[in-house]
Specification:
Blueprint: E1 2-12, E2 17-25, E3 28-33, E4 40-45, E5 50-53, E6 55-57, E7 65-66, E8 70-71, H1 76-85, E9 88-95, H2 103-114, E10 121-127, H3 136-144, E11 149-153, H4 165-177, E12 181-185, H5 189-202, H6 208-213, H7 216-233, E13 236-239, H8 245-256, E14 261-265, H9 267-271, H10 294-306, E15 311-312, H11 321-324, H12 344-353, H13 360-374, E16 392-402, E17 421-431, E18 434-438, E19 441-442
Parallel strand pairs: 1-4, 1-5, 6-9, 9-10, 10-11, 11-12, 12-13, 13-14, 14-15
Antiparallel strand pairs: 1-2, 2-3, 5-16, 7-8, 16-17, 17-18, 18-19
Helix pairs in contact: 7-8
Length: 459
């Protein structure tokens, strides 16, 4: 007997389409076919629905401290619940060591925070900063723990995150020895620092100057530099939260030179422009890199269409309005970050698939298949195939939802998407064969998620 039978859906496995059924047993996909006749403990009628592999959000910041006393609104439970309600069945968060802390010790502490709370499966990237302690032996030990990706910063020296270029090159060389994927926050420290100091002297401290302090060239230069460093040291680079057309062109250039460079963008860059910083609530949209202009937004959609962008992640790092208001007189004091993990699939489906910008197959590549391969989770995740984890998202293509504080499930006290209508929405989310979202509402247990030991990147 099957544990779960999803009957009569339009199924895209990540590799091919079929109209029919998905049978689940012991947390894994057991059968694919039409009119499966085996009995099941539970049957979901997916007639008129689209069934895809569960989404993978490779870029979230749950339970993250920031600056002087700030902390993201979502912990590992509320964050993973929000993710699940948006059809995400796997997230990858970050380990950010404290100054002087060893990266292995920081990894174990982060797991202690996450394990009791996560409602879906998760992994961890480890940030290697200018202030932490790392060594080749630490990278090898973390490889044995299933950590195969690291994050570096080309900005934020004041927060101890940025490494100087010499140390960065040395780290990339060691990362290549363990076949790691290196994520890059790509913004030019010196351009930003000069702009911030100048705007401060001149009293230009409204939210729009956040965007003006971090122009597209600051991103593009750093994408090119990190990409070339990766080419030199033979390591794969993933540019996270890419926000500009110029930055995307820089990544394309590195690829033409033979570099293995991959690109992630985020849903907020696909639906907003820098005009949001002129609004009365412009502080809500403070994140780095900032939202760019309309041409950049269209360039990113073109990158999704032509394959220049490989994955979509959320960079989910929301702060409540009372904390954002720390920047009411000086945008530099507002914590940076916005919500997004629950919005990836609805926005890509409604704004991308329904409007003819991308195909549904391409959407599944961006949110499931490619992330699984890039982050070393394939074929366990990212595909509907016999033996794979039964991580499934069932979308009602006609369901309309007005996004906002009352319809989204983050613990955040506001939404940057307030009033935005989307058509096509996840109604069931299944994680390892267990229904964790039903009719759009969460039913998942706290702590049911598992830590994922990942292999090396395969994309």
């Amino acid at each position: 007997m099957l544990d779960l039978l999803i009957r009569g859906g339009r199924v895209f496995t990540g590799e091919f389409w079929f109209e029919g059924d998905v049978g689940v047993k012991d947390g894994r996909v057991a059968l694919l076919g039409r009119n499966i006749e085996e009995d099941a403990e539970r049957i979901i009628d997916a007639g008129g629905m689209i069934v895809i592999p569960g989404g993978i959000d490779g870029h979230v910041h749950f339970q993250m401290p920031y600056g002087d006393g700030f902390r993201t609104a979502d912990d590992f439970y509320t964050g993973t619940i929000a993710a699940a309600c948006g059809g995400i069945t796997t997230i990858i968060d970050f380990v950010t060591p404290e100054p002087g802390q060893d990266i292995v010790e920081a990894f174990h502490r982060r797991r202690e925070e996450a394990d009791p709370l996560v409602a879906i499966d998760y992994g961890l990237h480890v940030c290697v900063t200018g202030a932490c302690r790392w060594s080749p032996s630490a990278l090898r030990e973390l490889y044995r723990e299933g950590v195969t990706s690291y994050k570096v910063f080309t900005a934020y020296s004041a927060r101890g995150l940025m490494m100087d270029d010499g140390v960065l090159l040395r780290f990339l060389e060691e990362a290549s020895r363990v076949r790691a994927l290196v994520l890059g926050h790509c913004e030019n420290e010196w351009i930003i620092r000069d702009n911030l100091e100048r705007f401060g002297r001149e009293g230009r401290l409204a939210p729009i100057y956040h965007a003006l302090s971090r122009p597209p060239v600051a991103e593009a230069e750093s994408v090119q530099r990190l990409g070339l460093y990766g080419l030199e040291k033979g390591v794969r680079i993933l540019v996270v939260h890419l926000s500009s057309g110029m930055g995307l062109d820089a990544a394309r250039m590195v690829r033409l030179m033979g570099g293995e460079i991959f690109v992630e963008t985020c849903p907020h860059y696909l639906v907003f422009t820098d005009e949001v910083y002129l609004r009365e609530d412009g502080l809500k949209y403070i994140m780095s890199p900032p939202i760019k202009g309309a041409r950049d937004r269209e360039a990113l959609w073109e990158g999704l269409m032509d394959g220049s962008i490989d994955v979509v992640g959320s960079d989910h790092a929301p702060f409540n309005w009372s904390e954002k208001l720390a920047g009411r007189d000086d945008f530099r004091k507002a914590p940076g970050g916005v919500q997004g993990t629950e919005n990836i699939i609805p926005i890509l489906f409604s704004e991308g698939v329904r409007r003819g910008r991308i195909s549904l197959e391409r959407m599944v590549e961006l949110v499931a298949l490619n992330p699984a391969k890039l982050y070393g989770l394939y074929p366990r995740k990212g595909v509907i195939a016999p033996g794979s984890d039964a991580d499934l998202t069932i979308i009602d293509p006609e369901k309309e939802v007005v996004l906002g504080r009352d319809t989204l499930h983050s613990n955040l006290d506001h939404s940057i998407y307030e009033g935005m209508k989307v058509r096509g929405y996840p109604v069931y989310t299944v994680s390892r064969g267990e229904v964790i979202v039903e009719d759009g509402e969460p039913v998942a247990r706290k702590g049911r998620g598992r830590f994922l030991k990942r292999g090396v990147s395969q994309l």
